[in-house]
Amino acid sequence: MDLTFNEEQEMIRKMVRDFAQKEVAPIAAEIDEKGVVPFENIKKMGQLGLLGLTVSEQYDGGGADVVSYAIAIEELSKACASTAIVMAVQNSLVCAGIEKFGTEEQKQKYLRPLARGEKIGAFALTEPGAGCDAAAVLTTAVLHEDVYTVNGTKHFITNGGFADTVIVLAMTDKAKRHRGMTALLVEKGMPGFAVGKEEHKMGIRGSNTCELVFDNVQVPAGNRLGEEGAGFKIAMTVLDAGRIGVAAQAVGIAQAAYESALTYSKQRVQFGQPICQFQAIQWMLADMATRIQAARLLVYSAALAKQSGLPYSKEASMAKLYASETAVWVADRAVQIHGGYGYMKEYSVERNYRDAKITEIYEGTSEVQRMVIARSILE
Question: What structural domains and CATH numbers belong to the chain?
Answer without folding.
Answer: 7-115 (1.10.540.10), 121-228 (2.40.110.10), 233-377 (1.20.140.10)
